[in-house]
Amino acid sequence: MILAVLVDRDPLMRHVAAAVTELDAGVVATHVDSITGLERTLGAVVPDLVVTDLSVTLRGPHDTLEHVRSLWPGPLAPPSGDASTEPDSACIRAAATRWLNPLTPRELADAIRARLALEPKVTP
To answer: Which run of H or E residues covers position 51?
Structure first.
């Protein structure tokens, strides 16, 4: 079973995480809406993947990825490929090597499995 933590302030992601888990596709997804929520979750479980929105912190993608990387050295992916500037894009490529562009819970579960196939699990 794969455990993914979705970090996103959008309440819709809570429903997406639940829908992914209900698919019985070998992926359990949990949702947190902040870096603080990620800290608490990582204190209780070791996920296989962290999927983080790039605007979870107020200062943008660099700050978000810096925070997440300070907490989680393992596989990381942002949920979309939209970076507004070249420095943002460079930062994202350096910290998260694969975008997830899901449209449905099934596509998210498939994208999570595909992302993990690219990189062995890292135990922090």
So the answer is: strand 49-52
- The beta-carbon contacts of 76-85 under 8 Å, at least 24 apart in sequence, are 76/49, 76/50, 76/51, 76/52, 77/49, 77/50, 77/51, 77/52, 77/111, 77/115, 78/51, 78/52, 78/53, 78/54, 79/6, 79/8, 79/51, 79/52, 79/53, 83/54
Are 56 and 78 within 8 A, CB to CB?
A: no
CA–CA dist 32, 38 (Å, integer):
6
Token couple for 106: 């099934």
Is the Cβ–Cβ distance between 44 and 36 less than 8 Å?
no
Q: For 38-52, how does the pLDDT look when each residue is reduced to its tens digit (9 = 90+)?
A: 999 999 999 999 988
Residue with tokens 């660099």: 62
Distance from C-alpha of 22 to C-alpha of 105, rounded to nearest angstrom: 9
Global pTM value: 0.81
**Strands 76-77, 49-52: pairing kind:** parallel
Q: Is 120 helix (H, G, I), strand (E, B) or coil?
A: coil
Distance from C-alpha of 74 to C-alpha of 68, rounded to nearest angstrom: 10
